[in-house]
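Quick one, T. Sequence first:
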Amino acid sequence: MKRIFLFLLTNIAVMVVLSVVVRLLGLDRALAANGLDVGALLVFSAVVGFTGAIISLLMSKPMAKWSTGAQVIETPKNENEAWLVATVKRLADKAGVGMPEVSIYEGEPNAFATGAFRNSALVAVSTGLLSSMSREEIEAVLGHELSHVANGDMVTLTLIQGVVNTFVVFLSRVVAFFVDRIVFRTERGNGPGYFITMIVAQIVLGVLASMIVAWFSRRREFRADAGSARLLGTPQPMMHALARLGGLPPGELPKSMTGFGITDHSGFMALFATHPPIEERIRALQAGAAAR
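Structure tokens:
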């Protein structure tokens, strides 16, 4: 219920902000004079912007299982699986969240958490991670993922994605409308200039929006690292896990899951990276330990 309220409140807030900005700039009168209903466009933009993000969140668990081939551990088949499930349960209790589904998938070292609800999430680890890390390091990675769940990061990122989607849909159509009327001088309906401009504007604004979402995603990684340190009582295991990951090729995740795994980028592509460089994450943990 709390998340439904947050979703509705965010929708309303976005529409209010957009309507106030449009009115202050006098765009509402200019658009209305040329036949564009700003109110209807705002509602359309919010519905389109948030619908895709919310559907993606609600389908995140089954899509994650399907795309990675993750197998949920219903009944542990060996001592390692029993330890993994018991460790997740202990950390989930410490983090104050419900026991998530625990799964294993074939792949290079990586892990992720996903799900629409904090008390029914999914935590998945790869066979590469299990075979290349010590149990203490694996526990730190699990603490990191459960911190994502406890912080509600999946929902937060979905809301941010919905907000930027709404702005992209709204602004691309406003820009296209003005270009069509002023540049192409279309007097009735929408001409080819409208649709061409809308597509181009949506692509450009979409790229800028993805940079904003990626920035928020990087901020939450530092919080999850710190959360792992709190759950384990020390940052050392997470620092060791990150250092080990720095020397291993992070496993490739399906595109829809890259915001929830372990990745590292540099240069211009760092602006689109969902995770900060591993060196920065280790330094942040060191700084947090020194500040205690």
